[in-house]
């Protein structure tokens, strides 16, 4: 299958380690999909859904202890501990290979190993990266088939002497005490043992395209970021591209395919990517962004024909539904789908469920896997190997208090500081407490494959190389009133903040200069057709002096862990913010 001798040799070695009964080389064909689906259906690994309602769709339940990324079991195994940095778990590579190698030893006896070559990026592009994932899970094969360009296309694309990412995965025993997600950036290798959950096992996604790729990008002068990419067509037909970094389950998929409100006629949205951006400097000195993925692995709960119709339409065929509610007629349902729940059904755990049972029918991190090509508003540029030119970069998260709806940073260095001091309430996308505010620089805390202080410096160093940098903004759709309700309607209406951002990029919108950056005047936002009280708007745009003073202290605590490695620029930015707040009070 591979011309690449190293690939053939490595597969042989891993076969002798894992000792599968059979080895299947995946070609990515439709025939293969049908054969594997039938096989997985015969063992109960997947269930075929109602093929009239959801053609080509299957259903899957993960183990109950395996429903989200497990950050405490995720390691960066660089040779030196300091190269993993203070925000990553580190394991010595020798220890990691030996400890988890013992687990892999013989783990596929009685099972089949699937060899899954895949491309992240557009096949044939000089910017694409190739990986080979070895896995004992058909669910992984079926997902990788949607999320990446997989099979023959990847095997053919892999050059004879080309580097590729060695990705080894086994479900193991699905025992949380024997679960490890290991990254060896210096060896271009990923080992994942004991899980069957998306982000832990679809190794092209977070593991390769963020953790390993961020390390490659630092060395090669480009950036791998946890960002959506979207084109916004304004009524005059001009398309402006932006990228936005929000932490997991904070609205990337939604913003990437937003439907403009009726009161904003003439605007159109073009989806390029919903989760990951690989960003390079183009010959014109601008930043150009590529979506390395081929599908969406989206949060199901809260997705409805009202909130995100384009996601609903994307996932109507050839998709995989994981940990949602299963209805008696072979259809799916989840909380926030905006259709009445079935009278009775089977919940994500496999137990009988009724709306009266008081339990959630689908897990809060239930997901759909859907081909990006099926998105009704997919951009004609989405597979362009050069990517799309960015006019703005957005940072944002869930902040019930503090962060205004939108503000613009003063310049690249200040914008990098704004990104580095981002914080957000934790969500169900990772195991652990939900709703706790934590610092999540650039939404990359769980995904940076090397020392985060070095990552900060990489961002700062980019400034000199980018002749025409995008402007950097911060947004917050999640600010709450004292009664806990959202102050901002969100979803399609987020276009109003985006529209202000685009007009700022063109020098056409008003703003107030505040200590934290440029905040819109009430009049500068397009609020046509939106019912929002003056009081709510005031709260959304407010910069609270005392709250920001406290925020400075909390930033300091986070920065302290980097010691002398923290870029001096950030100390300057902190001081400048303190000074500006002093004058503002
Ligand atoms: P990952 O796939 O985990 O990286 O998540 P994501 O950033 O793509 O988040 P997604 O768009 O899937 O949204 C996560 C949850 O937030 C869903 O339940 C959405 O319905 C909800 N959500 C998205 N946008 C908004 C918004 O503007 N306002 C409110 N209130 N909720 C939103
Ligand atoms: C996220 O958690 O940011 C996701 C889903 O996009 S996962 O693939 O699990 O990482
Ligand atoms: Mn994500």
Using brief descriptors, characterize the structure shown:
Phosphoenolpyruvate Carboxykinase, domain 3; 28% helix; 31 strands; binds sulfopyruvate; 9-stranded mixed β-sheet; 3 domains; binds manganese (II) ion; alpha/beta; Phosphoenolpyruvate Carboxykinase, domain 1; 15 helices; 585 residues; Phosphoenolpyruvate Carboxykinase, domain 2; binds guanosine-5'-triphosphate
Describe the protein's architecture and organization.
With 585 residues, the protein is of the alpha/beta class. The protein has 3 domains: 193 residues, 3-Layer(aba) Sandwich (Phosphoenolpyruvate Carboxykinase, domain 1); 273 residues, Alpha-Beta Complex (Phosphoenolpyruvate Carboxykinase, domain 3); 80 residues, Phosphoenolpyruvate Carboxykinase, domain 2 (Beta Complex). It has 15 helices and 31 strands. Strands 1, 4, 5, 6, 7, 8, 9, 10 and 11 form a 9-stranded mixed β-sheet that branches. Strands 12, 13, 14, 15, 16, 17, 25, 26 and 29 form a 9-stranded mixed β-sheet that branches. Helix 2 runs antiparallel to helix 4 and helix 14 runs antiparallel to helix 15. The N and C termini lie far apart (67 Å). The mean pLDDT is 97. The site of sulfopyruvate has 9 residues, from helix 6 and helix 7.
């Amino acid at each position: 299958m591979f011309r690449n001798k190293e690939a053939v040799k490595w597969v042989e070695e891993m076969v002798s380690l894992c000792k599968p009964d059979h080895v299947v080389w995946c070609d990515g064909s439709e025939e293969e999909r049908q054969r594997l689906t039938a096989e997985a259906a015969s063992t109960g690994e997947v269930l075929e859904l109602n093929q009239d309602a959801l053609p080509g769709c299957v259903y899957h339940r993960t183990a109950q202890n395996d429903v989200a990324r497990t950050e405490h079991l995720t390691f960066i195994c660089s040779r030196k501990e300091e190269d993993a940095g203070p925000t990553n778990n580190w394991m010595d590579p020798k220890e990691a290979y030996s400890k988890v190698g013992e687990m892999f030893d013989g783990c596929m006896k009685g099972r089949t190993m699937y060899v899954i070559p895949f491309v992240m990026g557009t096949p044939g592009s000089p910017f694409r990266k190739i990986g080979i994932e070895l896995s004992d899970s058909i669910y992984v094969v079926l997902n990788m088939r949607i999320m990446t360009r997989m099979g023959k296309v990847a095997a053919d694309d892999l050059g004879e002497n080309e580097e590729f990412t060695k990705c080894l995965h086994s479900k193991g025993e699905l025992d949380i005490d024997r679960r490890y997600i290991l990254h060896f950036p210096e060896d271009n290798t990923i080992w994942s043992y004991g899980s069957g959950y998306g982000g832990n096992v679809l190794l092209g996604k977070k593991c390769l395209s963020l953790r390993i790729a961020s390390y490659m990008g630092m060395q090669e002068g480009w950036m791998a970021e946890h960002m959506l990419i979207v084109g916004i067509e304004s009524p005059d037909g001009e398309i402006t591209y932006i990228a936005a970094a929000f932490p997991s389950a904070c609205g990337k998929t939604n913003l990437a395919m937003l439907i403009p409100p009726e009161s904003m006629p003439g605007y159109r949205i073009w989806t390029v990517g919903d989760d990951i951006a690989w960003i390079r400097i183009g010959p014109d000195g601008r930043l150009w962004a590529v979506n390395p993925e081929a599908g969406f692995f989206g949060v199901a709960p809260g997705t409805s024909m009202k909130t995100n119709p384009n996601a609903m339409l994307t996932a109507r065929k050839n998709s995989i539904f994981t940990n949602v509610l299963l209805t008696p007629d072979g259809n799916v349902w989840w909380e926030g789908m905006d259709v009445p729940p079935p009278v009775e059904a089977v919940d994500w755990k496999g137990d009988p469920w009724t709306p009266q049972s008081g339990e959630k029918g689908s897990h809060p991190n239930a997901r759909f896997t859907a081909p990006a090509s099926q998105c009704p508003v997919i951009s004609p540029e989405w597979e362009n190997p050069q990517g799309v030119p960015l006019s703005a970069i957005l940072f944002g998260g869930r902040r019930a208090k503090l962060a205004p709806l939108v503000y613009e940073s003063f310049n690249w260095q200040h914008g990098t500081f704004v990104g580095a001091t981002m914080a957000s309430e934790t969500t169900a996308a990772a195991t652990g407490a939900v709703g706790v505010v934590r610092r999540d620089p650039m939404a990359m805390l769980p995904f940076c494959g090397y020392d985060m202080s070095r990552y900060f410096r990489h961002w700062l160093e980019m400034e000199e190389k980018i002749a025409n940098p995008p402007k950097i903004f911060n947004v917050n759709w999640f600010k709450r009133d004292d009664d806990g309700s959202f102050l901002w309607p969100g979803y399609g209406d987020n276009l109003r903040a985006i529209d202000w951002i685009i007009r700022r990029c063109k020098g056409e919108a008003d703003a107030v200069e505040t200590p934290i950056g440029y905040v819109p005047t009430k009049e500068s936002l397009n609020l046509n057709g939106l019912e929002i009280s003056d009081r709510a708007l005031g709260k959304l745009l407010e910069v609270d002096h005392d709250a920001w003073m406290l925020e400075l202290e909390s930033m300091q605590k986070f920065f302290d862990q980097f010691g002398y490695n923290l870029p001096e620029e950030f100390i300057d930015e902190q001081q400048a913010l303190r000074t500006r707040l002093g004058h503002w009070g």
